[in-house]
Design a protein that fits this description.
Layout (H helix, E strand, L loop, with lengths): L6 E4 L3 H10 L4 E3 L5 H6 L7 E4 L9 E4 L2 E5 L4 H6 L1 H6 L1 H8 L4 H6 L2 H7 L5 H9 L2 E6 L2 E6 H4 E3 L2 E2 L6 E8 L5 E9 L6 E12 L2 E10 L6 E2 L1 H7 L2 E2 L2 H8 L2 H8 L11 H19 L6
Parallel strand pairs: 1-3, 2-3
Antiparallel strand pairs: 4-5, 5-10, 6-7, 6-10, 8-9, 11-12, 12-13, 13-14, 13-15
Helix pairs in contact: 5-8, 10-11, 11-13
The structure holds flavin-adenine dinucleotide.
The site of flavin-adenine dinucleotide has 31 residues, from β2, α6, α7, α8 and β10.
Amino acid sequence: MFAADFEYRKAGSIAEAVQLLSDNPGAKLLAGGHSLIPLMRFRLARPEVVIDIGGIANLRGINVSGDTINIGALTTHAEIAASADVQRSNGLLAEAAGGIGDPAVRNRGTIGGNLAHADPASDWATVLTALGATVSAQGPSGARTIAVSDLIEDAFATVLAENELITTVSVPVLAANQRAEYAKMAHPASFYAVVGGAVVVTMDGNRCTAASVAVGGLTPRPVKAPSVEQALSGTTLTADSIGDATARLGEDITAAGVDIIGDVYASAEFRAGVAPVEVKHALMHAIGLAHH
Ligand SMILES: Cc1cc2nc3c(=O)[nH]c(=O)nc-3n(C[C@H](O)[C@H](O)[C@H](O)COP(=O)(O)OP(=O)(O)OC[C@H]3O[C@@H](n4cnc5c(N)ncnc54)[C@H](O)[C@@H]3O)c2cc1C
């Protein structure tokens, strides 16, 4: 099917994009187009105005400044996966980017578009939640910083105002004693996460001194797992202690007050059963007891 008629506008700067969004309520930004264009072709989205931000050069690129990696919203998954700076500073980002979709998706899809689309099956939403990343959002009254864990409200819904755009994603550089991993049960055709678990552990030898754990794919938005984190912290990480900690994941999903998704890909019961397994897999990989 072809998309319904729309007006195409090309923004030359961030300020112009914000102005066009403000002037055209209901308009949609076009980044990589990998989610917006299929939605428009199925007529699930019918924006009257589409604002192409693809030519805004300062929305692209990666720079590491002190202990933060700043990634422009238009940076593609392939660029993140291939970046030597990213590989050196936070290998989980490169690994997660390299596991998204297929080469065509990775070459066009952008980190900003992925987060703004807020697909429950997004890898970035889960990984960046565990990493404690933030986004900068630019609107008519200036810029604000939003934690990725607060950005996504629900399936396909963010806290962004209609006339705000994500400009940068900022991610901490991993310290030498931190390990971060992501494990997902991927849909075999799209590679979208049916269930994904991301972990960051701070180690003192074999002992975990702090942990950050998030799961996604099974819930409308990523869920942090404080019970699992507490059970890991202060513990020597072994297959048994990891198994005991990840068994608490269900408590965290219940406490988050979100429903577990059941659909044609997997039932809610199946996803609930697989989630601790993916988190355990990520943790076992982080301490060198498993390999992808
Ligand atoms: C076949 C297929 C397989 C995929 N597999 C995976 C996968 O395994 N894992 C995964 O995580 N993702 C996957 N994706 C999603 C893909 O990675 C893209 O990131 C995603 O489609 C959106 O990014 P985009 O740049 O194409 O955004 P677009 O489609 O251009 O835009 C998506 C939405 O975000 C808005 N938007 C875009 N940029 C901004 C911005 N800077 N600020 C505010 N709003 C903005 C748009 O207006 C639109 O509403 C897959 C997609 C396809 C088609």
